Amino acid sequence: MKIATFNINGIKARAEALPRWLAEAAPDVVVLQEIKSVDEGFPREVFEDMGYRVETHGQKGFNGVAILSKLPLEDVTRGLPGDEIDEQARWIEATVNGARAVRVCGLYLPNGNPAPGPKYDYKLAWMARLKARAKALLATEEPALMAGDYNVIPQPEDAARPAAWVDDALFLPQSRAALRRTLNLGFTDAFRTREPRSGHYTFWDYQAAAWEKNNGIRIDHILLTPQAADLMTGVGIDKAVRGGDKPSDHVPVWVELAA
DNA sequence: ATGGCTATATGTTATAGA
Known about the structure:
The protein is α+β, with helices and mostly antiparallel strands. About 20% of the residues lie in helices and about 25% in strands. The structure holds one DNA strand.
């Protein structure tokens, strides 16, 4: 079972690039972030015609997440637990029924800039809720993963120019510590555990020729429970997607599970 | 780097992203 995450930065703007990548990479499951669309505006037929089931959790203009799956989905839930008045569409999860059942969570963690400020407070509060959900996932002792745009650069090795990010919400010590607190519950960063070297990124800004200069950061992650990590047979970043026509500023990250 | 592009809706300008 190949499971990917992709921040597409607008489903309407990616009407060509997303199907193109799906046809090439042929993932069984994809979690999408920043669909920037309400549920009714999502062009589900395009993906259903490619054999994908479509579950969306959208909102007007910004944010928005979705799951596309060639395999049957069960128990789809929307919204990260822990704050009844949070209306931002940043979390969706479902059980994917392959050879084994895998609980797949898709997330779009708040950016948090400028920091300090209310947006940063929201980011840290959201990360505390993420940790609580992560704990509950571990307690099931089943294969599960949390994939998405975490908006956190875990280590200096995950940025081409770490010094440029020291005051940014993506790299502040509190942000990195909050991500570590979740990881340290017992999750595996799928990409990092297989590739210890620096220089692998998932985001390149549209500005200042960041792509051409390879001035990137690694902020899209797939975190595996121990039972999912046991099943991992491969992992990768589809970097070439960033050089295609009308690309998102993020690229897909994927894992292959023996499930 | 005084955020220099890109995307969406609030729409010929404002807001958000990272």
